[in-house]
Every structure is written in structure tokens, then in C-alpha cells.
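Q: I have 456 residues here and want to know how they pack in 3D. Can you give me a structure?
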Amino acid sequence: MATVYLGRVNGSPQHSVALKVIRDEFSLNPEFVNMFLDEAKIVANLVHPNIVRLYELGADGQRLFLAMELLFGQSLWDVWDACRTRGVRLRYDTVAWIGARVAEALHHAHELRDESGRLLDVVHRDVNATNIFVTYDGQVKVIDFGLAKARNRVSKTAAGIIKGKTAYMSPEQAIGHTLDRRTDVFALATTLWELTADQRLFKQPDDIETLKRVYAADVPDPTLLVDGYPPDLWAILKMGLAREKEDRFASAGAFAAALSNYAQREGRVVAEAEIATVMAALFEDEKSRQAEWLAEASSADRPAPTRTMRSPLSAIGEADATAVTPPVFPPIQDPSDPRWNAATSHGLFAPPPSRRADSSGRPAPNASTSPRANSSISTPPPLPQPPVRISHSQSPLARSVSPSGTPTVRRAAASIPPKPASSTTRGAALIVGMLILLGIIAAIVVLARTLILRFL
């Protein structure tokens, strides 16, 4: 639905923003325009350290754009994948701390009110590891409110249509029932279960099977799957993953408090500085290349853009959409790199989970093993791109990959991480449609029979 550019403020080359611009093919479609405006309406009122900031909504002719906070780092999904590549995992208290920050951000969104003080009933609806962003300086940000539900949204979800990534839906979301803040609690608990157990929870080869598993909410006990899995953490996640929403945490704030309390039990102080050290160990070379790319793209002596997108609001000045595609990033550091050895020796990471086996000696269910030698961690399955029908607005990520590796003046600034499969599921709508059709046919038969009998 949108493309993200690196924007810079005229007169202030060092002030860069992520410029999210609605695509031409969607700019004349009222449905997509309303969704874009709804996202701006929600995010503009969310001022929280763990939510990406929106600076301004503007327009250039028929094209709308959002000027947003420019983030440098990686999605939590990329962090997870990098750990798997290394043959390690994030410590349980680290995951709990990150989850607590996300839960606090969601609670802030859930508590958003209108001018009269009434709750807007905001629900993110798309909480998962790709929409949780970890910056290189250790900040945790919730991004992409493009699918968020709120009472004052202009665009409405049609009956029988469900939105979000199927593997992270709640049971009520999977069947199109009314959603509230506890839906986001379930999605976040799913994400944290996967990170700590190091395997997918509900994901199946197709969306229908995935939805069936989501609706059943049959969550394996990770203490039976992974040696040494902390029962206290499982007790917290189990409550967040309760099938009936009445049995979950009543709010994301309560979920955050439980996670924060657990994160302190190991006696370590987990904070942004700790997360920054983790990010440096995993992505040090990439961080340096992103910084070089930004310096080049923001250079004051770059050619003037052929077209400037002007904002009617001027909260941040006049931003342009000129950007430079950064070079292709090399793989993360080799495990033999001394910097990596130093990071692991200081306890930043934990060994990969040791899988338990059942009585037959088979690996635990849903625990695929890694093809890498000497590693017992699971390998993430290939993640298909989401179908076009669902709008996944691009996250304001300061990372992109150029096939040629040569800087060019063209679309830039956002790397799109592999997203867990998502779809607009029409199963319920199809069933309703069939029932309506059968009703119409029955009515026609009765009418025809009545007419025949009357004339006879």
C-alpha cells in the first residue's frame, strides 16, 4: 500500500525522516486512502518511547505521505534469525524485558481516548516479531499500525473478512468475532513463546490449517519441549495464551508488569544498554554500513531532487523523497570473530535450547532441527510474502538491499523483512454466501410451487 523513502528536511541535512508515501495505484482508491489516513490518525496521538513517532501527515497532489521517525536497527524477527545463524538464543530475561516494553507500548495504545475522554478501543491486530523493531542503541519500538482497529476509523472491515497474520491471530480473531485489547496480548504471548521455545507455535503449511490451530489454541508446554525452560515464564505466557480471552491478562499493562517482574528474577539488570550490546554483537558490521549509507544519502552536496514533496503542515519543514540505496550487506560476523567470542563469553546469549524427546525417542512435536552441523536449534521455515489483498504498510526501517550494490538515486530506506504468512481469509464469508444462496433457492421453489397450485 505504501513505499518508504529516506526523507531529509530542507535546510537541515542531518535531520532525516522515514517518508511513507502511498503508492500511485492506491492513491485514488478511497478504501486504501482511508486506511492510510486512519493509521496517521491513530499514530499521531500515540506518544510513547516504545512506539514509532509520527511527525506529520502531508500531501503532494493526490499522493499522501507520512513523515515518521527514522529507525536504525533490525526487526525482532531478524534478531531471532541472526541468533539461530549463530547457534545461540536470547536469554529468557532479555526476551521478557523486550516483551515488557512492547506490552507497555500496546497498553498505551489501548488506553487512547478521544476528546470527550471515551476509549477509542484501539487494537493493533498485527503484533508479531516483524512489527517489533529493535534499534542499535537498544530501544524497542512497536511499528506498523496499518491494520489497527479503532472506534473512530473511517475504513471498516467487511463482515467475514479477518485481517492480520494468521499465525499470530487470537482464537476470536480467527473466526471474525469482536476484538479487544486482549487480542494483542495473545499475539504478543505467541511471539514470546516462539522466541523462547525457538520454534513456531501455530504456523502450518497453509492458512486454513494455521487458523484451525489458532482457534483450538492448543499450546504445548515448553517446559516439556525444552530442557531448562523456566516454569515461571511459562506460567506468564500460558495466561497470555489462554483460549478464552476472559482467562488472559485483563490488559497489556498487567502482562508488562508480569514480564518485567520475571526479567529481574535472574539478578541481572536488563536495560537498553544491554540490548545495544546484543545488537552490536549480532550486527556490528551492518550497523557501520547503515551509518555510512545514511551519511552519504544525507550529504548536503547531493544533487537537488527533481521533485520535492511539500507538506501543508510544515511541522518538520519541507521533506524530500530523495534517497540512496545502500550497498548489499555482508553476512554477520563469522562465529570465530574475536568480537563474537567476547560477546558470548560475557553472557549476552544463551546456548540453543536442548530439545526433549518423547518416549519413542523422536524429537518433540513441531521442533524442526537445524541443518547446520553441531546445532540443535530449530530452523525457521521459509516465510512467503503476504498476499496483495492485505495491506502491510512498510515499516520505517533504515535498511534496504540493492541487487547491484551500487548507490543510486531511487526508492530507498526500508528493508522489508520476511513476514510471517498473512491473508485476507474469506472462509466465513463464503459459508454465509452459500447459506444465503440456498435460502434464495428454497424461496424460489416455494414460490413456484404456490403459483402452480394456484393456477391448477
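Q: Anything worth noting?
A: The radius of gyration is 24 Å. DSSP finds 13 helices and ten strands in the chain.
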